[in-house]
Amino acid sequence: xxxxxxxxxxxxxxxxxxxxxxxxxxxxxxxxxxxxxxxxxxxxxxxxxxxxxxxxxxxxxxxxxxxxxxxxxxxxxxxxxxxxxxxxxxxxxxxxxxxxxxxxxxxxxxxxxxxxxxxxxxxxxxxxx
Length: 129
What we know:
mainly beta, seven-stranded mixed sheet, 40% strand, globular, disordered N terminus
């Protein structure tokens, strides 16, 4: 984008910047997750360090919001033997991304990981964790 001309008003210059940056900054990826517990009562949570990884560029889209699941250090109780649904919202992926991973980067074993998710035009996904 060229620099604003001296004759441009501040409002015109701001509008040009918004037109260029708004679509990229508003992009989000929504991942609906299904968790299948065992035959015992269980607890789950998500760590803020969870991200989407573009398999081609290495770009990481951070977790912005978690719905129906507690964020570390809190826990969510999951009913016995019943599928549990929760939703994660991430910052947008690069437009060039065609394949990505969901990675919960935690300091011990057992983090959620879904590999090789194929990008779609809606950026809304359903995965099993």
